[in-house]
From TrEMBL:
This is NADH dehydrogenase-like protein YutJ. Its cofactor is FAD. One of its GO terms (molecular function) is NAD(P)H dehydrogenase (quinone) activity. InterPro entries: FAD/NAD-bd_sf, FAD/NAD-binding_dom, NADH-Q_oxidoreductase.
């Protein structure tokens, strides 16, 4: 049997499995899915778990079942590309004939002293559970600071406001406005929503260090009961440790077929891959579907045909009743994008579950 090992059961990993098994999977191929947990966590909704408006169970999708699919649970510690081995923390190494690296991302702290030690994270299921505990144990009228005014920071602040109307919530952002990657009209809409719901925003904040109970903007101490880090991401440490060419964001350089150029049996998808899209669940899923088509073509002995990946847009929520989005070049605001986001979540659960 040829072993096709997939590292990571997130959006890219599950889309990879579906693309393989739905396309006449050769009988001599065994797919091995490796993940630290026995289910997919819906990462795009971790902000709701952190705020307390969604339960842990609500954000789980069971992994699929297939006669040629084996699941291995545990922590990956390293990848030996020369020996074609995946090393595990407390288990035997896994040999592979083909490998997909779809391990996602982790927080990027930009070398800021104390940021990792004294802020809370929403990058993993485990860290988000701890963030939920921290935020919801804060006494009434406590101070919460969200470091980073991108999509995750905005959604976390809005959801926490809905969960805890008693707290003082502030977004600290280094730019001139929240959602700097979006059109200014969307930023203005979100800023107005924050003003209407007593969420503060502070721009041009350059966080230089974090201590227990304080975030420092230069010499200014901003006192806090809890700080949540949404100030940047990077590929996971296993990818960081690979001595291979990477882009400025630390993502692995790949060829047109999403292979490592010097190791064509290894494919990289999602947040670990240098692709012309911002890291997102949608980009990971779309790339995985394309890679599955490439692999089936290679197995048939055909030349793979590459289609251009087209993303449908980005949606964000402001609590349960409002949202915003960018569909192509069209900005959408209000109730409709929130309903659309709920619909996408429902479809995702139905599709993967």
């Amino acid at each position: 049997m040829r072993k096709f090992v997939i590292l990571g059961g997130g959006y890219g990993g599950l889309a990879m499995i579906q693309g393989l098994v739905n396309g006449n999977l050769p009988a001599d191929v065994e797919i091995v899915l490796v993940d630290r947990m026995p289910f997919q966590g819906i990462k795009t909704e971790y902000y709701a778990l952190a705020a307390g408006t969604a339960s842990d169970f609500d954000l789980r999708i069971p992994f699929p079942h297939h006669s040629q699919l084996t699941k291995r649970y545990g922590e990956v510690t390293s990848i030996d590309l020369e020996k074609k081995l995946v090393r595990m923390e407390q288990d035997e190494p896994i040999e592979y004939d083909y490998l997909v690296i779809a391990l996602g991302c982790t927080d990027r702290y930009h070398g800021i002293p104390g940021a990792e030690e004294f802020t809370s994270s929403i990058q993993t299921f485990s860290s988000t559970r701890k963030t939920y505990q921290r935020l919801n144990d804060i006494k009434p009228y406590g101070q919460v600071h969200i470091i980073g005014g991108g999509l995750s920071g905005v959604e976390t602040a809005a959801e926490l406001r809905e969960s805890r109307p008693d707290l003082n919530i502030t977004i600290l952002d280094r730019g001139s406005r929240v959602l700097s990657a979006f059109p200014s009209t969307l930023s203005a809409y979100v800023e107005q929503w924050f003003r209407d719901h007593d969420v503060n925003t502070r721009s041009h904040i350059s966080v230089c260090r974090v201590e227990e109970g304080a975030v420092y903007n230069g010499d200014e101490a901003i006192y806090t009961d809890a700080a949540v880090w949404t100030g940047g991401i990077q590929p996971v440490k296993i990818v960081q440790d690979l001595d291979l060419p990477k882009d400025r964001g630390g993502r692995l350089l790949i060829n047109e077929y999403s292979q490592l150029p010097d190791y064509p049996e290894v494919f990289v998808i999602g947040d670990c891959a240098s692709i012309p899209f911002a890291p997102s669940a949608q980009a990971a899923g779309a790339q995985a579907e394309q890679v599955a088509e490439v692999i089936h073509a290679l197995w048939r002995g055909d030349t793979p045909k590459i289609h251009k990946i087209r993303l449908k847009g980005t949606l964000g929520s402001l609590g349960s009743k409002a949202g915003f989005g960018l569909m192509g070049k069209t900005s959408v605001k209000g109730r409709v994008p929130r309903i659309l986001k709920s619909g996408v979540l429902w479809l995702s659960k139905r599709h993967f579950g």
